[in-house]
Amino acid sequence: MGLDGKVVVVTGGTRGVGAGVTRAFAEAGAQVVICARRPPEVPVPGVEFRPLDLRDPAAVQDFFAALPRLDVLVNNAGGTPYRRLTDAEAERHARVIELNLVAPLTASLAAYEHLERSRGSVVMIGSVSGGRPSPGSAAYGAAKAGLENLARSMAVEWAPRVRVNTLVVGMVRTELSHLHYGGEEGIASVSRTVPLGRLAEPSDIGAAAVFLASDAAAYISGASLHVHGGGERPAFLDAATVNKEV
To answer: For a Cys staple, 144 with which of 127, 225, 231, 242, CB 3.0–4.6 Å?
Structure first.
């Protein structure tokens, strides 16, 4: 699934999942440009960094207009702190939606003419939070649900010249995992809830993104690829008092 010579933009590609996606495309032979507000602490050789606040529509437009070519856009930038709904005003929750839903739309629209010319593709980095209740990150879950739906509509409107797909990502082990799951004990405990027995590595997400952007996925558009290790074991199975495995 080589992407030799292809130009790829990864938003928020400086750390965590984004860094894994960046490395995967670079290893596949692509020319990768990453954009974020701050440069990466550990640069990937051969990858170009450009500062950009994705919540600034004019800056986003200028960023893409300056590119000579674009084949793949990975809308990865996003995230949220743990925040219950009643712990903040609506405006703070709206900022989470702005980063996780509005910013990918802004970037995709700014990149469209490039992608149409190159018959390129968009990969949205979604989340399992968009398909289940997300207490403590409700605005984030709502944004990711919207992102997946946006990608499906975009895939229809922009066909046949631009493909659009979503990676529905489960729990990933990154440098910020302790904020969500606790220390090593917490991560190990959470890992046991995943059918495959571990959290994803950023490289797992990167490999899936490269696949969706490659010619191997030439007939895949409007799809949602779940990268979650098998999902979550239904809680009732552990709560039930019958049919227990010995």
So the answer is: 127
Residue from 142, 117, 116, 121 nearest 131 by CA: 142
Q: Does the annotation mark 140 as catalytic?
A: yes
Q: 132: how many CB neighbours lie within 10 A of its CB?
A: 11
CA dihedral angle for residue 96, residue 198, residue 183, residue 181, rounded to 10 degrees: 30
d(CA 46, CA 23): 10
Q: What angle do CA 178, 77, 99 make, to 5 degrees?
A: 100
pLDDT, tens only, 210-246 = 999 999 999 999 999 999 999 988 889 888 988 877 5
What's the pTM?
Answer: 0.95
Can you list the residues of the chain whose pLDDT is less than 50? none
User: pLDDT value at position 79?
Assistant: 95
> Which is catalytic among the residues 112, 140, 181, 219?
140
Identify the three-state secondary structure at position 164. strand
- In this predicted structure, what is the pLDDT of residue 246? 59
The total of other beta-carbon atoms located within 10 Å of residue 143's CB is 30
Provide the mean pLDDT of the chain. 95
